[in-house]
Amino acid sequence: MPDEPRRKAIAADYFRRLNDGDVDAVVELFAPEGRIEHPLGRPARRGRDAQRDYAAAQIRDQVRIETGLMVAAQDDRQVVVPHTVSRGGGPDRPAIGILRIGPSGLIEQLRILEGTDR
Fold this sequence. Notes:
- It is built from three helices and seven strands.
- It has helices spanning about 5-20, 25, 50-60; strands at about 30-35, 45, 65, 70, 80-85, 95-100, 105-115.
- Strands 1, 2, 3, 4, 5, 6 and 7 form a seven-stranded mixed β-sheet that branches.
């Protein structure tokens, strides 16, 4: 299992690659059957095609993310990432990312809670 600093580095790398606009680099951080729930509560997207579609849509929408202080959960798997997100230069919105990192160091699950307040 990746240790706390490694899990945080993987989470930071995910958001950096998304900001960089590199779909392939984003997808390679996920386990092949990794799940994405964004917004949380909607059916999960699963697998490489879904991961690629999600990353491409975020990049197409010109999503920019600024991360806050990350917290590694005591379960040795998850990292909570408060962040702000803007789309196409619009106003910042608060959000929380919860990433579950597997033993292989790949993201098994990404859940995003995005606020509507500015």
